């Protein structure tokens, strides 16, 4: 660790905190610039009396100025208090936290499978550049990479649920907490969708990066120093191939987290995405805000980790200007 | 600087290892490549001696060097033998070869910046072969590392070991690569263009280091280079390669003094000399891509070819200089040599001043020092001005400011009676037309998606709008003819052409604008000498016809000496010396100029 490095890390963290603050402000303002009466109506419905609205507004302190409410909400949020749902009256955190856990687990499982498979396929292809296998698989990856997540999800649903009947239909996938096996089953198709979403991008970059590293002069040079194949591969080829790969993996993890929203909806997975869609529909301000902020936090955290890994892997970034 | 080692031979068999290449042939089977890339190369590397392998790009010299140590890429077929004390490297099992590589045989490739792993500390890169081949660990390893860095002249070795390759200069990177190559006291050292791309002074220092190491450690060295002058000064024996074959081989001094093969003769005449500002005209045509086995490969380009040369493939024969030569007419031609000519450009130019550069400074933001600092000069119409200096001296930045690619931070520039104070985009079109720039690398300066016709059409459409379609076409064909390219080239894409042909297209494009000032930025650095002379001749002819003045920026002092009327020597952004070419060489005023001139390898100075 040196001063310059600390400075760089500090600057990146600062930039990310600023991003979070901006996201929170924009989200809050988008949800709250409406008149308090309109917010009340969107929750209570059209057929409510004036006193009911007044009572609702007073109970949730919607009559305070927007900025004051933002400051109050932000202060609570930082302390881990996400407020009470204006729809159900329950604490937002009760619903959000369990679902966050499930969604993160889903995204992590999908990413793990997608990234591992992507790297494996990419490295496999990099050693067979120009072969028929290479051509076919690269074409396949390109097709897969150009498919949006809902298409992949629907295709999996059609094949494994409707056609093969291996998994229960959406209606039958009610989340039962008692049965570990049933719980695991509900993860399979959503996680597979996320894995298939990431895999082609990772595989293509892994293929190109590995190919480039193996064609490099420094790999030839390492071989000509008589080093073992293991040293040539790991110390010289893969280490350098990892550089472009890490930044692409970072982008794709973000992609996986945002993919959770669509996947929840398609498979009826009881995750954060499903709750987000529901809370926007019911006008549930605090729940929506909390979920958006949590997504933002996760994405920022991924970026910070990727930045740190890049700094660790790439001495040029770490020692720039020295 | 040449050494005579004959006394060693009398003292009996030298101690170090000897590498014998016997009939090395390399093929790259594939469409359009019928012949072998390398054909029957037989050479011997003796301990303590440096063997030079010269030739132009694509002649197979690097392929030979790699094949000699048993390294082959996928799809390569290597036959013959490469014998190191009884072991045939080509016949060994891969594992056995790996125990020799980096240990008894080391290889250093052209660009150390590419051959060193960018994300590993240099100390670890040096430690890896030491651990593997010598089993060194701990303090012994650390001590050996420091010892090696001291030997190759890396200052402050302890700290240097902990740094990454990009934290060193190009010359130091090559020294580090050399330290890694020498770490296990190899018997054989293969150097593939190890100093190409480095500044002359750096090149001279590394060459001296190599000579010293080869002598002291009794290493047998193969030194591959395109630079004959460099090899002439450094090597004990010299082999010249053309189209995959050794065309001449012998004791360096004798080969340089009395070359037997026409190709060697012309190649020697093509290298610019600082003591004789004349060049042999370039060799017409391009070399065949593979070895030619049914006639002499050089015959189609050879000025001395007889009928038999086109039908008989010459065998290597003993030559008077004690080596071998592969030429049917070697004996008849022993006294013939090509006559160098002085370049005919508009030497007696008018006295009218075309360009004034006055106290110009260029300081890029965040740069520690200005790239160009207080530079002033004048250029007369039709004059040739050379600007020389090492990389980073600011010589190219001057061209960028004149052409309007960057604005000077301070200072005044005037072209004719127009003040140059705006970027090219903001300049009047007529001004852009009269100042044309040709870049070092035609691969990058020609649009790869445009045909040659489209490329040449650009200046005509931009600057000569008055011309009709038929006139434009006629002008394109005329200029192609002037740069000696066939008309059929117009429909081809840049990647179909060789590097030299592409550079001629770039020159044709510049002259179609009818410039009064042509700025040439290292225009021949990426080209082989046989092409270089042709390209320079073309610029000289066209500028003489049109009366254009030329500013020639180059790192090659000998080249600038050959071409320019006046020379500016630059260092660290400042002008060190400014004088007429002859005067500069006859009586250099500054220590730096003297150092530069001294660093240039000389042909025939022995």
Automatic annotation (TrEMBL), chain A:
The keyword Transcription does not apply. Residues 100-310 form the ABC transmembrane type-1 domain. It is found in: Cell membrane. It is a multi-pass membrane protein. One of its GO terms (cellular component) is plasma membrane. The chain crosses the membrane at residues 12-31, 104-125, 137-160, 180-199, 290-313. GO terms for biological process: transmembrane transport. Keywords: Cell membrane, Membrane, Transmembrane, Transmembrane helix, Transport. SUPFAM superfamilies: MetI-like (SSF161098). Belongs to the binding-protein-dependent transport system permease family. This is ABC transporter permease. It comes from Methylobrevis albus. The lineage of its organism: Bacteria, Pseudomonadati, Pseudomonadota, Alphaproteobacteria, Hyphomicrobiales.
Automatic annotation (TrEMBL), chain B:
It comes from Methylobrevis albus. Pfam families: ABC_tran, oligo_HPY. Its main location: membrane. One of its GO terms (molecular function) is ATP binding. It is a peripheral membrane protein. It is found in: Cell inner membrane. InterPro entries: AAA+_ATPase (IPR003593), ABC_Ni/Peptide_Import (IPR050388), ABC_transporter-like_ATP-bd (IPR003439), ABC_transporter-like_CS (IPR017871), Oligopep_ABC_C (IPR013563), P-loop_NTPase (IPR027417). The keyword Methyltransferase does not apply. GO terms for biological process: peptide transport. PROSITE patterns: ABC_TRANSPORTER_1, ABC_TRANSPORTER_2. It comes from the Bacteria. Keywords: ATP-binding, Cell membrane, Membrane, Nucleotide-binding, Transport. This is ABC transporter ATP-binding protein.
